[in-house]
Amino acid sequence: MKYCFGVDVGGTTVKLGLLTAEGDITDKWEIRTDTSDEGAAVLPDIAASIAEKIEEYKLDRNDIVGIGVGVPAPVTSDGVVNGSANLGWKYKEVKKELEELSGLKAVIGNDANVAALGEMWKGGGAGEKNMIMVTLGTGVGGGIIIDGRILVGAEGAGGEIGHICVNYDETDRCGCGNCGCLEQYASATGIVRLAKKKLDHETRPTVLNKEKVTAKDVFDAVKAGDEVADEIAVEFGRYLGYGLANLAAVCNPSVFVIGGGVSKAGGVLLSYIEKPYMEHAFFADKKVKFVLAQLGNDAGICGAAKLVLED
Amino acid sequence: MKYCFGVDVGGTTVKLGLLTAEGDITDKWEIRTDTSDEGAAVLPDIAASIAEKIEEYKLDRNDIVGIGVGVPAPVTSDGVVNGSANLGWKYKEVKKELEELSGLKAVIGNDANVAALGEMWKGGGAGEKNMIMVTLGTGVGGGIIIDGRILVGAEGAGGEIGHICVNYDETDRCGCGNCGCLEQYASATGIVRLAKKKLDHETRPTVLNKEKVTAKDVFDAVKAGDEVADEIAVEFGRYLGYGLANLAAVCNPSVFVIGGGVSKAGGVLLSYIEKPYMEHAFFADKKVKFVLAQLGNDAGICGAAKLVLED
Description:
The structure is a homodimer.
Chain A: E1 3-9, E2 13-20, E3 25-32, H1 36-39, H2 42-56, E4 64-71, E5 80-84, E6 89-93, H3 94-102, E7 106-110, H4 111-122, E8 131-136, E9 140-146, E10 149-150, H5 183-186, H6 188-200, H7 215-223, H8 227-251, E11 255-259, H9 267-280, E12 289-292, H10 299-309
Parallel strand pairs in A: 1-4, 4-7, 8-11, 11-12
Antiparallel strand pairs in A: 1-2, 2-3, 5-6, 8-9, 9-10
Helix pairs in contact in A: 2-3, 4-10, 6-8, 7-8, 8-9
């Protein structure tokens, strides 16, 4: 039996998994992300945790294909990161360092891209080869799979779909410094922003409370038939649907997989996205499917495992 | 010496080339495109013309790698076209038919994608692996190369960048049926449309004549210092620059190659595109280069040759 490790590095915790080459999760666990001293301990901690697990399961190193890793930063095709705000890293040769520390092959990818690979392997995009995963969390992340391979780009910044512009009239700034980014409308934070703007001038009755509204509140209210919440969801869906129509003209995917915290709202979310998408999609892109992500927090470790298995 | 044929099929003429495996054009010629009877004669005519050329040069069939073909339609990865308005084709198994007719291996691609491959091999994108070619002609076409490979997409409709929406307030319709497509502003036809709208209400002196203005006229007037033409070019460049910034967020290319008839305006064109691009580009995409296409009409046959050589 062949094994591999899948590692999903976040700013607070590192999720690790021991998987079979078929993608079954034998074990999964977490360690704390130590971001002190420019994140110097992150890779040694991962290597030590994996060494312990090899010991615990008495694994033969010849049976271990390697370590796949997703990190919250652009990653070049040779496994180099040029800075990660979440981890404190500056320039870091992640692949080289981790291979030296662990004695195992390591393959590194951007976390959003890696999660997309996981969903294509075992989740909402299973069986597809041209897939776009949209992660609606604090921000909007993306992972684009073209003909079965992650779209990495020249500098590892492919699939930054949270930063396509969907509103050229916007005057509020996105965290990236531009105005009108998809992230300003379709992330959890963006939905709250839309809700607060709406509630500023709203006179109709609504269950939404302007002071402490969350993205979850909005979709809970939608399900309860709240008219104001419905209009916020329509606005969210219009920006996201229009943005995805532009993505489709570029990439011609067969499926969009919608994940991240916001996607916990469920199928109701998809209906708000699909209608505006169809209004603006190029005719050749109207057959695309919209599905919810299925792997939740396991997408990262599954995709990381796949990354090293198919290297 | 190994040889191959590169074929660029247009609605009026078919351009053919005999190339060495190194990409030197040994001979090039054209035949008429016979679109009668749903384009039934197109592939037989190509096969016959190639057979004549093999005879003329006394080529050994063992030295011929195959035939690469670019066609004006989406092409699936197995060489099938589901209709081409320009050629009259309905469903056609282009690869299979041409291989049977010629006795040679054939590889088929979309013409805009194939031209991009040509520019990456021998033209403005030489040495790059992540490149977007934008063809500003009657319409706006695109060819996207990711890590050295054409982005084909699920249905062969990848890289349809003329149909990304860059203006959600547009009420005029694009040929595709949608409103606000890049093609409505950045094609030769689109530039004429912008010019006519401007000239409708223009009182300042200008060399532009509303009744017969062309895209070339606009850029000639720009070079002559015409203020009205400059403003039309600014508008053209804003839509195109903004559109390319969105493309970059998705694909993170290292270079944009600008080709097609409109690009004959030369370097002045690039300055109108780069400024708005930089305003809206995600920070990781600001290092991209803008260059003019170099191969002109040979991009199609060169790229088609490359397509079969690297298959």
